[in-house]
Amino acid sequence: xxxxxxxxxxxxxxxxxxxxxxxxxxxxxxxxxxxxxxxxxxxxxxxxxxxxxxxxxxxxxxxxxxxxxxxxxxxxxxxxxxxxxxxxxxxxxxxxxxxxxxxxxxxxxxxxxxx
Amino acid sequence: xxxxxxxxxxxxxxxxxxxxxxxxxxxxxxxxxxxxxxxxxxxxxxxxxxxxxxxxxxxxxxxxxxxxxxxxxxxxxxxxxxxxxxxxxxxxxxxxxxxxxxxxxxxxxxxxxx
Lengths: 115, 114
Hints:
The structure holds 2 protein chains of 2 kinds. Chain A is mainly β. Chain A is 0% helix and 49% strand. Chain A has no helices and 11 strands. In chain A, the strands form 2 sheets. In chain A, strands 2, 4, 5, 6, 9, 10 and 11 form a 7-stranded mixed beta sheet that branches. A 4-stranded antiparallel beta sheet of chain A has the order 1-3-8-7, with no helix packed on it. Chain B is an all-beta fold. Chain B is 0% helix and 56% strand. In chain B, strands 2, 4, 5, 9, 10 and 11 form a 6-stranded mixed beta sheet that branches. A 5-stranded antiparallel beta sheet of chain B has the order 1-3-8-7-6, with no helix packed on it. In chain B, strand 6 and strand 7 (61-66) form a beta hairpin. The interface between A and B is medium-sized, with 33 and 30 residues.
């Protein structure tokens, strides 16, 4: 299994440009999430999905869209990039395990710089 | 806002010493998890403790949970230089499954000197 994969690894955008960060998992996990990590801030949840066709907002959803047409893929779209979206983005997947526990499996991250 | 507050923000120790990191949270939880992040990499799950558990062990890791104080601690015994990383606590909210939503603390940067 490849686990959780993310592309690209690094991206530079100009303010106002749009782009899609790709995330895929091959573990047949029900749940997928997008987080952003800023220096000294830990990880903050952007959007999450509990299954194909079902998504919801997290703590910091503004400026981002998601969709989940398949179990495997969960792309994150930046509609009009702003310098405040400069960050490292992590995708994660998880499943409902024994006793209701959910261990999250993280991708390697995408570093985004918005100029 | 961040649910968890971690203490200390940075910890520097010698190889062989024990490292203790603390995490406090604000609301009721289903479980609390600890993750490790090596520089520039993704997060790796270390251990999960459920709200009805008080202590859990995994190899050189020991986690405690005090739900009355809304706090947890992670102890790494006999530390190694390879343990150098950032460590994050993350909580899953109470009321059933969190559906993959975790709330992370700000992390503790651990440096283990050879």
